[in-house]
Design a protein that fits this description.
Length: 185
């Protein structure tokens, strides 16, 4: 009888020692955070500030791109959410405040195809979605957004003068920002 108890105890110790009863994560990716709660939000007012030294992207253009992206996105439309530009005296259910912190453009060294350069544009952005009662629903501080437009320019100053660049960048940035917000990343 004593040998059976000793054998049982040895088996229990062995199982515990080798992790048979306890799951210990081995450093894999953590589960994604839960999606943000849209409860009580039907109207989002959007405001954009460009606090970068260069001021290349116009705040009004980015704000309008974000409003359009929210209004025409199937996930926000299905949730009954609409966006509009923030105006004085008007309040929505939530405020989406976007601040551009920096804007840099660099071409890859020696990479050019028929006069077209694939640029790397890095936009550092802080974003906060706050309900009217002050509850922060979602935020990112100093998030990097890397975009890669291709333009026939070899100098960063010339690139920023390209008349279609701002439209392309604001659309791409608003799309990525909305995707991060909707996936709560």
């Amino acid at each position: 009888m004593f040998s059976k108890k000793l054998l049982t105890l040895a088996c229990v110790v062995g199982i515990l020692a080798f992790g048979g009863c306890i799951f210990i994560p081995t450093g894999g990716t953590p589960p994604p955070p839960p999606p943000i709660s849209w409860h009580g939000i039907q109207t989002i007012q959007v405001t954009v500030t460009n606090a970068s030294e260069s001021h290349h992207l116009g705040p009004a253009a980015l704000a309008q791109a974000v409003v359009n992206n929210i209004n025409f996105n199937s996930r926000t439309a299905n949730a009954g959410i609409k966006a509009k530009l923030q105006t004085e005296g008007e309040t929505g259910d939530a405020l989406l405040k976007i601040t551009i912190l920096s804007e840099t453009a660099t071409p890859p060294p020696g990479e050019s195809s028929r006069g077209t350069v694939k640029w790397t544009v890095l936009l550092k952005v802080s974003t906060t979605l706050t309900k009217r009662d002050g509850q922060v629903v979602w935020s990112e501080t100093g998030a990097d957004y890397t975009l890669t437009p291709a333009y026939p320019r070899e100098d960063p100053d010339d690139l920023w003068q390209e008349h279609t660049l701002e439209h392309w960048l604001t659309y791409q940035l608003s799309d990525r920002l909305l995707n991060r917000m909707l996936s709560a990343k």
